[in-house]
Amino acid sequence: MKVAVYGAGNQKLYVDQLNLPEKYGGEAPYGGSRMAIEFAEAGHDVVLAEPAREMLDDAHWKVVEDAGVTVTDSDAEAASEAEMAVLFTPFGKKTFDIAKDITKHLPEGAVIANTCTVSPVVLYYVLERELRRDRQDLGIASMHPAAVPGTPQHGHYVIGGHSSSELDIATDEQISRCVELAESCGKTAYVVPADVSSAVADMGSLVTAVTLSGVLDYYYVGTQIIKAPVEMVEKQILMTLQTIASLVETSGVNGMLKAMNPELLVRSAKSMHLLEEQEELDAAINTLADLDDEVTQWINKGEIRHTDLVAAQALAKELKNLMGGKAAEGTIRRCMRKMFE
Amino acid sequence: MKVAVYGAGNQKLYVDQLNLPEKYGGEAPYGGSRMAIEFAEAGHDVVLAEPAREMLDDAHWKVVEDAGVTVTDSDAEAASEAEMAVLFTPFGKKTFDIAKDITKHLPEGAVIANTCTVSPVVLYYVLERELRRDRQDLGIASMHPAAVPGTPQHGHYVIGGHSSSELDIATDEQISRCVELAESCGKTAYVVPADVSSAVADMGSLVTAVTLSGVLDYYYVGTQIIKAPVEMVEKQILMTLQTIASLVETSGVNGMLKAMNPELLVRSAKSMHLLEEQEELDAAINTLADLDDEVTQWINKGEIRHTDLVAAQALAKELKNLMGGKAAEGTIRRCMRKMFE
């Protein structure tokens, strides 16, 4: 497969700041350059586009080239034959600019795949005009490493499949191409809904994992021990998570914490300790009961701003009924981008 | 203070099913009858309204009456002089019926306070017609025990103050009355926004506590270790929690888990272990990595239904701009009730 990787990865961040070699193992170069190396070692034709030579030192560039990767500073050149273009580029506008640019150069039917720096759905919306007008053949998918490439933790890729809103941004064949590329390097390929991939693969997956452990704990205690109806337990889960999310949206993390009062929460949550083993609850209570002075002051400085606590999907449905599905699309899209950008 | 408590509490649930005496300590009667006893012992004039005599056995009824509580099966009679009416009544319609009924009988300026079985904001909306038309003097607040009254864990009350949407459903004096009643029994009174009280005081506080510990962990790792911009870290938190909440809303807990793939999440979240001590993350990874066959099958049977992932507050704002604030109120209200009822 002909593959272009955009962005070699900032080795100063990985090595000096995050101290990956000691903390996680593996060796530099990490990031996009490591992905390129692994693709080349799996037998693919790989070009790595990186205009900022200083991202890697000379020894690391030699490792890249010795693996058979072609290095270029021209995004267009890297795109010209790529069946798969993988963006390991900086967060924000830079990634959008590169993506827009390469839509002009990619061959018929190519896939543009994000990694951790943007959601595939946002990438689709940013490129939508180009894709609909000029390049209906291109697909948007992801090759999200969900760990830093080059660390032993990187044993898999998260691939955005058909989205939960039925928006299709890549064909089955294009999604399969991502799976094939991942598996050819000996990585596990997880296909998840495109719009869910960020929540399970980005840095915030820490929050997702901890939250899900709490959801599972409560679902068990609620339905099996307290024997409350499933609908009631699910409504409580929706309510608590929607409340936290909306307060973070309007008031930031410290405003949310001020509204929720960790001290109170410790007392309330202790009452839900109904089993011998509720490891996540014990850990949560320890954390919330033991906030240091600095954190407490930061919470006290929080400001609770106007928040209309609503069930988001119910509101989206009302909007569609009100405006008609087609007309509501633009609004829903803007509000989706508010979440991801 | 003259206080009416509605609902004595189901002792079969507390003692036989939840096994509170052994698990938590304290002694029966638990629940509304224990609240009534404690209010009476603090020197208040207390009436307990309970039409279902079988909720307590004779020995427990004797404890209630020995404390000086007047017992009645008439809701109207209990209301007739109550400055404070506390609803320890069943979930759902029953509570609304009792609340509607007593608005006809309560004296000038009384407060109707929910406990764990309904949110104060929902109670307000259900009673709104009566309150606006006939009884503008009544206030809606809460005396939420956030633990089963009668257990040693019940050292506090959660009181719904001014809401985060600036909807005022009780006066300052009425909120203070709740605080005074709580403190007169030696309990700590926590005043939180009325619309947030359910999330920090109901059964779901287990989920809230665990989630917040994950948010704090990630906020620290994101801003201090990875040194990502605060806005980006907060956006990730919003995105992950809004995604989970919305998937639960459309697809239930197992549909959500199917979309998010716990196995994948374990792998992603492990990469966010960047400190020695991330107790909640360790616990979460243990839980998610060790799902038993039954749970796995239940997740596999989940169905991912149509979900429009949007930032809820952005959508509420768009709706208000579109319809005008006044006209949007009804829609926002309906979508709030979808979350709480």
Automatic annotation (TrEMBL), chains A, B:
Membrane spanning stretches: none
Pfam families xrefs: HMD, HMD_N
Keyword Ligase included in the entry's annotation: no
DNA damage recorded as keyword: no
SUPFAM superfamilies: 6-phosphogluconate dehydrogenase C-terminal domain-like (SSF48179), NAD(P)-binding Rossmann-fold domains (SSF51735)
UniProt keyword annotations, A-Z: Coiled coil, Oxidoreductase
Enzyme Commission number: 1.12.98.2
Regions annotated as coiled coil: 274-301
InterPro entries given in the database record: 6-PGluconate_DH-like_C_sf (IPR008927), HMD_C (IPR004889), HMD_C_sf (IPR038182), HMD_N (IPR055205), HMDII/III (IPR010063), METHMP_Hmd (IPR024190), NAD(P)-bd_dom_sf (IPR036291)
UniProt enzyme class: oxidoreductase
Domain H2-forming N5,N10-methylenetetrahydromethanopterin dehydrogenase C-terminal: 194-289
Sequence similarity: Belongs to the HMD family.
Functional summary from the UniProt entry: Catalyzes the reversible reduction of methenyl-H(4)MPT(+) to methylene-H(4)MPT.
Protein name per its UniProtKB record: 5,10-methenyltetrahydromethanopterin hydrogenase
Organism: Methanothermobacter marburgensis (strain ATCC BAA-927 / DSM 2133 / JCM 14651 / NBRC 100331 / OCM 82 / Marburg)
Gene behind this protein: hmdII
